[in-house]
Design brief:
Strand content: 15-25%
Number of helices: 13
Distance between the termini: 37 Å
Structural class: alpha+beta
Strand order of the largest sheet: 2-1-12-11-10-9-8-7
Length: 514
């Protein structure tokens, strides 16, 4: 879930070579590593059941410099969503649930903000991003790692999230509803989500090295470390994932296993020993469009439709079906693409959060199969990213310069007016304190969100997080009573580079009564 707003847009609007030889693929990946400053990338391609490329490049960690290879484990993040929907399809095949069953049939306490929506909400709605909630609504309940909220608290928290649009009217990507889908699987099957995925899918498919959650990986001798830009320089950062969100993005895998998954899906969910794990009807359902997404008329693959199925993005590219998803955590992003009609699968796993890197590689390989001439996607995305980051950095510098200019005027609210205990209905308690003549903010249920509050104007502060890898500094917009005492605040990121899972915009923070 990394889930950078920039990355998200690249995933949805991604924009070549005759079929590439190994040396061309080697060169392609190495160029991407250099251009986008990614320590390690592993790439796999399967065609008609035959693995034609599976190789790691670069290093799995800039600290230990151990090489990345085809067996290096990576958190595949939101590529896990396809497994969640596959699991639901298995339960449908067994007659235990139906896609259009109401969620409250299995989770009676489930509620959305609107009572009508609560009663009408189906299992299908949980996994098709059409809830009416905003992009990434409520993700702070599990992101970044370190909170101790339970699935029961998450379900209760979702009921306080105000809709952005009407029910089933727009595509807005949401992780928490997948987490609730995972709870449906647990209540129906009696197995924890990760246990179900491992026993019912990973093991029979033959994905021997994959686990349903980072926390279930016992052998970490060949696993990546996460990396992110910190003050303009790539640094190794702590791995980020919460078990609470396994159903949305918890699986850990490698190129070798993900190519097995690709082949298995394109062969109609039939394992190598001939066992069919999902009926033809349910496989068809997974890859049937559920939520349409607008697409530009002049797009790079002459696509005529685009949208979301059940755990998958679906489109036509140059006249053939594309089934794909991507995933992102803080410090790593991944891409999984199928061209089922051509029996081609492409898997890209990385240990840095550059969506441009995997998009450039993926598009170049797709182009080689679809008949496009070399469009040099690395240069295209590289130029675009250079321009984008220059603009972002200029705007952020301007915001902090305005803060310095305001502070130079010496006009401050009395800090006592802001200090106190606050709370948000879905995220919980937030504390504002004073230390060394500066205000600080601390989220009880998100202990990594600790930051200094920098005055920006008479009613607004900037939360500058101590963890600089987040790149998610945010405005606090205070409300005051007639005596000048803060009654609460709202938040929004200072830059659109902020990962959308830093869901500050849905917070409505109120001062707790003394």
């Amino acid at each position: 879930m990394k889930r950078h707003i920039l990355l998200f847009l690249l995933l949805i609007f991604s924009f070549g070579y005759s079929q590439l030889a190994d040396n061309q693929l080697d060169s392609l990946v190495k160029r991407a590593i250099q251009k986008f400053d990614v320590p390690g990338i592993s790439l796999g391609i399967i065609e008609n059941g035959k693995i034609i490329y599976a190789k790691g490049h670069g290093v799995r960690s800039i600290n230990n410099q151990k090489p990345m290879n085809e067996n290096t484990l990576v958190g595949i993040a939101s590529n896990s969503k396809g497994f969640t929907c596959f699991a639901i399809g298995m339960l449908v095949d067994e007659g235990k649930i139906n896609w259009d069953d109401k969620v409250r049939t299995y989770i009676p306490e489930f509620k959305m903000y609107d009572p009508f929506v609560s009663e009408e909400f189906t299992i299908r709605d949980l996994v098709t991003h059409r809830s009416g909630l905003s992009l990434g609504a409520g993700d702070l309940m599990f992101f970044p790692e370190g909170n101790d909220m339970s699935i029961d608290e998450l379900i209760q928290g979702v009921s306080h999230l105000k809709p952005e649009s009407s029910f089933r009217s727009k595509f807005r990507y949401n992780n928490n509803l997948y987490n609730i889908a995972g709870e449906v699987i647990r209540r129906v099957s009696g197995l924890e989500w990760a246990e179900f995925i491992e026993k019912r899918i990973l093991e029979p498919v033959g994905m021997k090295n994959s686990k349903g959650s980072y926390h279930r990986v016992t052998d970490r001798s060949n696993i990546i470390e996460a990396h992110a830009p910190v003050n303009g320089k790539i640094q190794q950062i702590p791995h980020d994932w919460s078990q609470l969100a396994d159903a949305a993005g918890g699986i850990v895998s490698n190129i070798t296993d993900m190519l097995i998954w690709a082949d298995f899906l394109m062969k109609g969910a039939v394992t190598k020993d001939g066992k069919q794990l999902l009926s033809d009807k349910q496989m068809h359902e997974l890859w049937t469009l559920q939520t349409p997404i607008p697409i530009a008329k002049n797009n790079p693959y002459n696509s005529r439709f685009y949208g979301y199925g059940l755990g998958w993005f679906l489109s036509d590219v140059a006249g053939t079906l594309e089934v794909q998803h991507s995933g992102g955590l803080i410090g790593t992003v991944t891409k999984f693409t199928l061209l089922p009609d051509k029996q081609i699968g492409i898997v890209i796993l990385t240990n840095q959060q550059s969506g441009a890197a995997f998009s450039a590689i993926n598009n170049a390989i797709k182009d080689s199969y679809l008949g496009f001439e070399n469009r040099d996607w690395i240069k295209r995305y590289g130029d675009r990213m250079d321009e984008y980051f220059a603009d972002v950095n200029t705007k952020k510098a301007s915001i902090f310069e305005k803060a310095i200019q305001f502070q130079a005027k010496g006009i401050f609210n009395d800090s006592k007016n802001m200090i106190g205990d606050y709370s948000d209905a879905w995220l919980g308690d937030i504390l504002i304190t004073e230390k060394d003549k500066s205000l600080w903010i601390n989220f009880k249920n998100q202990p990594q969100l600790i930051g200094e509050l920098i005055p920006y104007n008479s009613t607004t502060y900037i939360a500058k997080w101590t963890n600089r890898s987040f790149d998610a500094d945010a405005f606090l917009l205070f409300n005051f009573d007639e005596n000048g005492k803060a009654t609460g605040f709202n938040m929004k990121p200072i830059s659109d580079i902020t990962d959308f899972s830093f869901d500050f915009v849905d917070l409505d923070v109120k001062r707790k009564k003394d």
